[in-house]
Amino acid sequence: MIDKFVDSMAEAMAGIRDGSVVLLGGFGQVGQPDALIDGLIAQGAKDLTVVANNAGTGHTGLARLMELRRVRRIVCSFPRSAGSVVFEALYSAGEIELEIVPQGTLAERIRAAGAGIAAFFTPTAVGTRLAEGKEQREINGRTYVLESALAGDVALVEAWRADRFGNLTYRESARNFNPIMATAAKLTIVQTQQTILAGSLHPEVIVTPGIFVDRVLHVPYAMQTEMGGPDA
Amino acid sequence: MIDKFVDSMAEAMAGIRDGSVVLLGGFGQVGQPDALIDGLIAQGAKDLTVVANNAGTGHTGLARLMELRRVRRIVCSFPRSAGSVVFEALYSAGEIELEIVPQGTLAERIRAAGAGIAAFFTPTAVGTRLAEGKEQREINGRTYVLESALAGDVALVEAWRADRFGNLTYRESARNFNPIMATAAKLTIVQTQQTILAGSLHPEVIVTPGIFVDRVLHVPYAMQTEMGGPDA
Amino acid sequence: MPDTAPASIAALDRHGIAARIARDIPEGWYVNLGIGIPTLVAEHVPLQREVIFHSENGVLGVGPSPAPGAVNPWLINAGKQPVTLRPGGAFIHHADSFAIIRGNHLDLCVLGAFEVAENGDIANWATGKNDAASAVGGAMDLAVGAKRLWVAMEHTTKDGMPRLVERCTYPLTASGAVKRVYTNLAMLEITPRGFVVLEMVRGLDFEQLQRSTGAQLFHPE
Amino acid sequence: MPDTAPASIAALDRHGIAARIARDIPEGWYVNLGIGIPTLVAEHVPLQREVIFHSENGVLGVGPSPAPGAVNPWLINAGKQPVTLRPGGAFIHHADSFAIIRGNHLDLCVLGAFEVAENGDIANWATGKNDAASAVGGAMDLAVGAKRLWVAMEHTTKDGMPRLVERCTYPLTASGAVKRVYTNLAMLEITPRGFVVLEMVRGLDFEQLQRSTGAQLFHPE
Fold first, then answer.
1. If you write DSSP's letter for every residue of chain B in order, what string do you get?
2. Quick check: A155 and A182 in contact, CB under 8 A?
3. Per the domain annotation, does B94 fall within a domain?
4. Across the strands, what pairs with C200?
5. Assuming Cys at both sites, which of A219, C2, C214, D207 could form a disulfide with C165, CB separation 3.0 to 4.6 Å?
6. Residue C2: predicted pLDDT
7. Residue C160: enclosing H or E segment and its boundaries?
8. Which residues of chain A have pLDDT under 50?
9. Are D90 and A167 in contact (CB < 8 Å)?
10. Which residues of A touch B203 (CB under 8 A)?
């Protein structure tokens, strides 16, 4: 019987190696796999490249991972925001590398990696600093810039519901980057608020089919917020 | 109040011009907007380019449109199949142009048009006759071929449920090409089996948001199969 | 106050600019609102005029802020503020959300800006070459992707320096993208000639507006 | 029948080839089956061994054919035959379906073929340069996209001409893509050396198999 549920955070995090490219779902605090990020902090992998929309806030989660000097490089669209104190300190000290990518280009590069598309021509950023040094081409009278696929070794995803096949749904705006990141990594690890233990999700409402998912950890929300994760 | 429902087939078809590129949803008979194709036959536009997975079967629907010499060119992945008698006769007589596109490249070209991506590098068809004359490039040690976006003037789409905002769901394998074609045309016309008149579809299960939809015609299935379309 | 004194210029406040923009948005448009003054625009579109607000983080049909105590932690806009969902709304993922943006499906995007140039260039994300860690977010995608790009901003900086200029000095967000600018002083259209003044606030004359502007202004033809 | 007569060769029929392939598919794999012999493979995977069959037209979890009278007209496979959906199944659109294929997410694709070459080239969609209207469907995407491409076919044509060859003569579907070939006579792996014979049917010897094959055969190292 197919069963992608794992019983512990340690099992969920097994095998993540130093030097990995880690895709982190979420937009701001919403849809962020907080428990899995805490699990990654505990797991110990370092020299990571993190791909996420934001560069973390406060001193928890991604910010904590950076503060522990475990992140060599971050690829994001919105590094500097209210509370991004850890990132800003590391960046101005030259202790973290940054690649800024327009948010839509970031999403499309991740989607391309999951879809087997090596590169694509987009109109975004043409004529700006973020297109400098990149191949440009006029197609049907408009200028486009070539952007390449952005794949991960690991994706950490927050779902709302999951079944044993790894099929997922998301809740409201917590969907955001999660479904595309789930497609783009060699190892996709999911924390889910609810489980469908007796059966499977309705086939018409599944957003991420289980083919993209390797491991699912059940992390009820209350547990997560009160205790910082099931293993914390 | 936003209301994308139209009352008649004539209203649904209004303004389709000679020379249009028409995207036809469906895979085989499933998810094909049969009533709208009949409506297009009645509407009269000619010199059309049709983009569809198949090239029609028997003497109805797309095959009938071709038989009436209204289709100049067809872009598809699977032209010759059981019953594609009209296409085969026209093609061997040199009376219709054909562009064969691998099915996944066809889907991705349509999706690219809807997503503002001008062109993309795909591994499909490299080393085959269908990549001849196309730009190729080695990226990370693998060869890819450049394919361009494929946009429509008009998309004809079959939905299962629609609300007044033009939000759509599909039924089972009738989803197929419909959602991507809905994104890729200047004018997207939908036939729907069911309507949500009193309210709107649940926001988590919508497959095509109304932003992609211009007109919706209610075509209950029984009517469609028994009478060939509401105006027939 | 006498009509001739400078103080009599009826400059708009932030809500005034937003309300002016809201008047120009017809029912049925799909609209993305940037952070700042643009976000306020939604408050000035009457609920009975159905406009579908899109947010980059995968929300179509963004509605007003929730009442205190009724905040849904799963539902935010691109500015990371809690919002509600209006009837007809839908949730989509980020690649689909930016397919909508890049694919030219939005009728309108309203952004704030540091500078707008007479050729339609917009600079709204970084203030200098040293500011390498600036947050671009979705601004570049929105600026090139929407059918219309309107800018909402103060006509000058706090120091009185013009924000409507011949050429942007700050790093560009997009080139040649802006169609209209709504400021606290005027509404201007960008045409092949440059800035054309369509409206000014009460008490302001063309010459005064020109003095606050870093590029040549034109009357409508 | 005596063991030495040619008639004693226990050549597999179409279901025999399909059943042999089914033995090699472990639980949990995501598998796409082409038209013809490959489609039969699903019938030989016991239902309790959970394998998720994918169909290009946006179905994950394809199940057995429905009982007569229980056909669901909205649910077909890529061969346009009515099917059912197994627990855990999902419906997706065509671009997402081919993202799965092209993006290297399928553990296995099984295709039929006219010819397979010793370098892994496969020809399965068109029989000649004149056949310009051949139907390629999703074969080219599947051949390059799946983690493993296995071919199911007769070892020779009806006229006895080899289908396993040094170089394909028919138009290619993909180059260097095939990993294994399952025929009515043998199971072969394609390696840098060429065709390596892993199994032969009962009553057949290596020399006989070589005579039915258009390329050099090798024993496993």
1. ----EESSHHHHHTTPPTT-EEEE--BTTBT--HHHHHHHHHH---SEEEE-SB---TTSTHHHHHHTT-EEEEEESB---TT-HHHHHHHHTT-SEEEE--HHHHHHHHHHHHHT--EEEE-TTTTSGGGTTS-EEEETTEEEEEEE---EEEEEEEEEEEETT--EE--GGG-TTHHHHHHSEEEEEEEEEEEE-SS---TTT-SB-GGG--EEEE--HHHHHHHSSTT-
2. yes
3. yes
4. C186
5. C214
6. 42
7. none
8. 223-232
9. yes
10. 172
Instruction: Write down the pLDDT at residue C105.
Output: 98
Chain-chain contact of B2 with C91 (C-beta, under 8 angstroms): no
Instruction: Print the domain residue range for A212.
Output: 9-101+151-226
> DSSP 3-state assignment of A67?
helix
Q: Is B32 left (phi over 0), alpha (psi -120 to 50) or beta?
A: beta
Domains, chain D: 14-218 (3.40.1080.10)
Cβ contact D93–B177 (<8 Å): yes
Q: Residue C145: what pLDDT? A: 98
Domain assignment of residue B109, yes or no: no
Q: What is the pLDDT of residues B5-43, one digit of tens each?
A: 999 999 999 999 999 999 999 998 899 999 999 999 999
Verify whether residue C56 is a known catalytic residue. Answer: yes
Report the candidate in B139, B142, B54, B146 with the shortest Cα–Cα distance to residue B105: B146
pLDDT at D132 over 70: no
CATH code for the domain of A179 = 3.40.1080.10
- Single-letter amino acid, residue B50: V
How many contacts, defined by CB atoms under 8 Å, are there between A and C?
139
Domain count, chain B: 1
Number of B:C CB contacts under 8 A?
A: 63
The half-sphere exposure of D143 on its side-chain side, counting CA atoms within 13 A, is 30
In a 3-state reduction of DSSP, which class is residue A5? Answer: strand
Please indicate, yes or no, if residue A142 is contained in any of the structural domains: no
CA angle B169, B173, B178 (to 5 degrees): 55
CA distance C147 to C180: 12
- Find the CB nearest B116 among A115, A123, A148: A123
ipTM of the complex: 0.96
Minimal C-alpha gap between A167 and chain D (Å): 7
The Cβ of residue A44 has, within 10 Å, a number of other Cβ atoms equal to 11
Contacts D66 to B, Cβ<8 Å: none
Closest CA to D149 of D186, D167, D123: D123
User: Tens digit of pLDDT for each residue in C4-54?
Assistant: 445 689 999 999 999 999 999 999 999 999 999 999 999 999 999 999 999
User: What span, in angstroms and rounded, lies between the C-alpha atoms of D176 and B142?
Assistant: 12
Q: How many CA atoms lie within 13 A of B147 on its CB side?
A: 29
Strands C84-91 and C59-63: antiparallel
Integer Cα distance of A161 and C121 in angstroms: 45
Query: Hey, what long-range contacts does B123-126 have (CB within 8 A, 24 or more apart)?
Result: B123/A116, B123/A118, B123/D102, B123/D144, B123/D145, B124/D102, B124/D140, B124/D141, B124/D144, B124/D145, B125/D140, B126/D144, B126/D174, B126/D175
Share of chain D above pLDDT 70, in %: 95
Closest to C179 in 3D by CA, of C208, C144, C210, C206: C144
Segment (H or E) for D103: none
Task: Please judge whether D94 and B176 are an interchain contact, meaning their C-beta atoms are less than 8 angstroms apart.
Answer: yes
Q: How many other CB atoms are found less than 10 A from the CB of residue C143?
A: 32
- B131-180: pLDDT as tens digits: 999 999 999 999 999 999 999 999 999 999 999 999 999 999 999 999 99
Residue pair D124/D90 in contact (Cβ under 8 Å)? The answer is no
Residue A4 falls inside a structural domain = no
In whole angstroms, give the CA distance from residue A68 to residue A63. 9
Task: Write out chain B residues lying below 8 Å of A208, CB-based.
Answer: none
| pLDDT on residue A222 | 59
CB distance D4 to D176 below 8 Å: no
DSSP state of A187: E
